[in-house]
C-alpha cells in the first residue's frame, strides 16, 4: 500500500469514527454533548434545562437569582468595644464580705472583724438583700460601683463599715463555647471585651483535624456566621463577645463537585465565605491545558421548588451556566459569578483532543506517525 493509500484509509477511518459514537477513552464530555437535547421537548412542555451564557450583560440578573444548596448563617456583627468591666445582671451570684471595726457590731460576733455573705443571687428585678438596709439595686452596675453603693447605704447605719464585693458567677456574664473547641463549656468573663479568638484560645483552641471551621454566633435571638479563616485574616472580624453569647464551631458543610478535564475530580469543601467560578477552577487544579476546552467551562445547578418559573427567577429547575475563558469578559465574569453549595463544576474536553486520539489510533494501526501534520505530508 502506497503512502497515499494509507493516508486515504486513515482519513476515511478517522471520519467514520468521529462521525459516530467512538470508543476512544476520554476523561470528560464535550460541551456539545452536555448541551445536547436542550431543544428536545414537546410543545407545551418545559425545556429539560436552561442554558445561560455568563457574560457582563447577564451577571446583574443572575445576582438576584435565589441561593441553592446548604446555606449556613451569614452576616457578622460589627466590631465595637463595650464596658471594660463586667456588668452585674439578674441571675448573677455575688459574694459579699462586710468589715466592721466597732467593738460591738451589728454584723460580726465577738472577736470577729468581718462577716462573709456568699451566694447572693441577683433577683429578676436586679436587687440583692443586705441586712439593715433592705434591698439594694445592683443590676447594670460594675462590681466596684455596686460595692460603693452598698457601703454608702451601710455607713448610714455603721460609720466604720467597709464592703468587699466579688462577682462569683452568672450566665449573663459568660459565654457558652458549645462545640468545635478542645474544651467546650461555659466560660465566665474575667473582663469584658474578650474577643472571640481570645475565648476560643481559652477553650483550648480548634482541633487541627476539623476541616474548614465555620463559626456560628447566637446572640440575642440573632444567628450570625463566618468562616474562621476570615476572622484570622481580618482583625475587624475578631469582635468582642457579650454575656450569654453562644459560639458553635463546626466544619463548613458547603461543597461543590469538580469534574472533567481538570487537575482533580473530587468533592471540594468551601474554604472561605464566597467562592467564585474562577476560584473554583483554581481550587480544582485548573483546567487541563492538554485536554480541556477553555470555551466550555460549565456549572450545573438545580433550583428548589418555588425558586424557578416566576419573574426574576430561573425558567427551569435545572440550569447550566457556560463560561468562555478565552477572553477578558469571560474571565472577569467567572470571577464575579458565585458558586453555590452543591454545584457541579465541569471542565469539558476539547474536540481537538479526541480527534488527535483517533488519528493516533489509526496511525498506530497503519504503522506510521500519528501527528496530524503527517496526514498532509507530500507523497513519494
From TrEMBL:
PROSITE patterns listed in its UniProt record: PROKAR_LIPOPROTEIN, TAT
Signal peptide from the UniProt entry: 1-19
Keywords: Signal
One Pfam family matching this protein: Poly_export
Protein name in the entry: Polysaccharide biosynthesis/export family protein
Chain ranges of the Polysaccharide export protein N-terminal domain: 85-166
InterPro entries, per the entry: Poly_export, Poly_export_N, TAT_signal
GO MF, any single term: polysaccharide transmembrane transporter activity
